Amino acid sequence: MASKKKSYIQSTVGLTCPRCREGALFEDKGLFSFKYRMHKHCHHCGVDFEPEPGFYYGAMFVSYIGSGFFLMICALLAVFVLKLSLPVTLITLFVFILLVHAYLFKVSRSIWIHWFVKYDPQVPSIKP
Fold this sequence. Notes:
The structure is a single chain. The chain is mainly α. The protein contains three helices and no strands.
């Protein structure tokens, strides 16, 4: 039975291989797990998840910019729309970022590799 291929967004936020969109990027499947170990290659299509040393250095900038804008928008909404005090807003955002840090780390790496490894719907599976 043929499975429906994931979209670019589903593959990116679902932390799957950018080439086949089937294999998992990370060894631990929990989205909010603090285990950050990535597979060396895709177990479905064989693509190398670390094409060169330091490849994911740029993912740090993706994480920084993405989380910065997101937290800034949340802070502005909390202060000006919800009328929360600044200390309550800062504590709430601090707790929130602690809870989603692991996922932000993983999705930043996923975004980074998806920019450089292109989807190939015809890629053969290396599974027997």
